[in-house]
Amino acid sequence: MNGWLRPIGLQRSLCGAAGHDVSAREAYLRASNYYRTAYLFLYGAPPCSDLLQAFERESATFRKFALRADPPLEPVEIPYEGTTLPGYFVRLHGVMAQPSSRPTAMTPPSMSSISPLR
After folding, report:
1. DSSP 3-state of 102
2. Are 116 and 62 in contact (CB under 8 A)?
3. pTM of the full predicted structure?
4. Could you check whether the bond before residue 71 is cis, i.e. omega within 30 degrees of 0?
5. Where on the phi/psi map is residue 69: left (φ > 0), alpha (ψ -120 to 50), or beta?
6. Cβ 87 vs Cβ 78: under 8 Å
7. Looking at per-residue confidence, does 9 or 27 come out higher?
8. 87 exposed, middle or buried (CB, 10 Å; 0-12, 13-18, 19+)?
9. DSSP conformation class of 101
10. What is the pLDDT averaged over residues 64-88?
11. Chain-centre distance of CA 74, in angstroms?
12. Is 60 exposed, middle or buried (0-12, 13-18, 19+ CB in 10 A)?
């Protein structure tokens, strides 16, 4: 699994170091999706170390993408039956202060969603 993912890590590093924020953002999102795609075939009981490593890398690269997204994705914790569900809130362009009452859509995560939401 690691061999075909190395080039995307190098691309992220080079883009970020060169100050190419948009390219770095896109590379983080692409890397997150590659990690997710790689570990879908590794599911089993008990979880193998490659699955756990890819999951952690996917989550980390998605969080780095979320910080650079335009508009930024804000991590949130949604109260649900005595616990919380992780999620991201995306504000409308140009609305960076506290939002007034606006319609809000929630999409619960599933196997086909990004894992940082699971």
Report:
1. coil
2. yes
3. 0.70
4. yes
5. beta
6. yes
7. 27
8. middle
9. S
10. 87
11. 11
12. middle
